[in-house]
Amino acid sequence: MSRTLVALALALLPLAGLSARQQAGAAQLNLIPVQGNVHMISGAGVNITVHVGKYGVLLVDTPAPAASTNVMEQVRTLSKLPIRWLINTSSSPAHVGGNASLLEVASGRGGAGAPFGFVGLGRPSIVAHENVLNRLSSPPPGTAAATPDSLPTTTYFQPTMDFSNGEAIVLYHQPAAHTDSDSLVLFRSSDVISAGSILTPGRYPTIDLARGGSVNGLVSALTTILALAVPEGFASGGTLIVPGYGRICEESDVAEFRDMVVIIRDRVQDLIKKGMTWEQIRTSRPSRDYDAEYGASPADAERFVESIYRSLTQGPRGRS
Amino acid sequence: MTRAARTLAWASLLIAAAAPSAAQEIDFSGSWVPVYHEDGPERLPGPELADYLGLPINDAARLRADSYDADRISAVSEYQCRQHAADYGNRGLANMRITTDYDPAGQRMSTIHTRINFHDAERTIHLDGRPHPSADAPHSWSGFSTATWMGNMLRVRTTHLKAYYIRRNGVPASDRRTLTEYWVRHGDLLTIVSIIDDPVFLTERLVRSQSWTLDAGQRLGSNWCDYAAELPLGEGVVPHWLPGTNPYLKEFSEWYGIPFEATRGGAETMYPEYRDKLKQTFSTLDRCGRYCTCFNANAGCNLR
Q1: Contact with chain B for residue A31, Cβ under 8 A
Q2: Any domain includes B44
Q3: Domain A28-314: what homologous superfamily?
Q4: Domain spans of chain A, in order of start
Q5: Measured between alpha carbons, how far is B118 from A231 in angstroms, rounded to an integer?
Q6: What is the pLDDT of residue A139?
Q7: Is any Cβ of chain B less than 8 angstroms from the Cβ of A267?
Q8: Distances (CA, A) of A38 to A169, A222, B137
């Protein structure tokens, strides 16, 4: 490919992103009751978890900016209470990219998020693990820093954080999974876990090495979901899990997904032990029996396998 | 006639045979005992490892099944206590009770409920024309079923099934598959023709049938199940065979004298013409070594 074509392709990349965001704005949104006080909105980029509680509305992850208005319209069919909290389950753009626009739509004006749970300013607070704030403040080389109005205003750095919106809500930090700043969000009475991009049924997960993700951390995070979730009986019902993308899951669905990651990781590890190079591993297609189920394209499958290979040979590039 | 068309031919015959012009409502209510004359060794003692005969599977399904290690059920407790998925439940320990609801005003059949003995598996089949849920809704072992009458035959369509298996030796079934059933009652005999479409693992539709006889005296028990870690392998360990390392793949071929290539399955192995191909390499064993007397009354089950 000539340099001109490469330059043209690079120049068009932002437009491609814009197009995707526009599509998210125009796409059909699905508002699906999960259980208890929790709903899920899909079709706006990442899945958005909506919790309607005693003190207001809490959203887990934010939509693509162009979809913010439509998402808020959906939320308003559930409750007129103020939006009190936005939780970001990771630092990746798909999860935080809509912070500023949703904040503006929710409050009717721009500005940064409010202090934790403080609605007097008419704006929600943005809650996340501290690594989200760190990552957004000093992003990987070549990517722009986030604007101040999209930064978390309440962060935690312990293994867990809890608060109440009429029912207990617990955040569990997962140190090196999809990124190094992932949180699982448990709604204890509703018996729902919002998993962010740790769980993406029907598509391979993204292990974002540049943001501190790792394959072993991903397995550990998925195993944590299995430990938190309790089926009602016969491996069915009970705890429901809202994934970053795709359909609502039960515990056994998470087991299938976790086992897919483990099996492909084990295969890649075995090939590394045999002394194979990345090119040889790529050619052997160790994920080939999972690609039709999880890979939208051969490139998706290769990206996933390569992230496992890099994770096993180079380790995560996390901050802690 | 194409193979796919031929695969459905006998289901179509059933449709034609059972089709008066106006829809009727056949009452399937009652207690039904399965008849295991079809695929007996697969359905009762269980299939041999690496027996993929007669399954229209693709390479991905074959490798998944080759990688399957039954220890996974012992090590991953989330796999324990699973009910059979709706498309497998009819083939397992399938003593079944069927009950029916009617809408109060019109007295038309509105819902059919089934309960299978194994792990208390219950299904609800809606006949009121409701739509299937969003693709993002949760999946379940029973899936979401709606039905319409085709003459005196019931056509049931099921979506939202969880990932499971189509044969109990690890041949996978994806959560994108759909199940189409045709329920036919002839007096005290119930036959359900099941058709599985799985875009992930099947190259053609998988058509199977199961039959039951009415048994008014049948009594179903409750079949509770508790989880128990059986193998202390450590958190996050998932037993499986790496590609090319499963040592048991040729047992089935050797025990039954069937060419190894045939045991690997694929659409070709579903059709009668495949027998002609097999004759070139198949040699009858000197003596029966496995499942020789399983289905003879009082003879026990002569496992190797």
Answers
A1: no
A2: yes
A3: Ribonuclease Z/Hydroxyacylglutathione hydrolase-like (3.60.15.10)
A4: 28-314
A5: 18
A6: 78
A7: yes
A8: 12, 21, 13
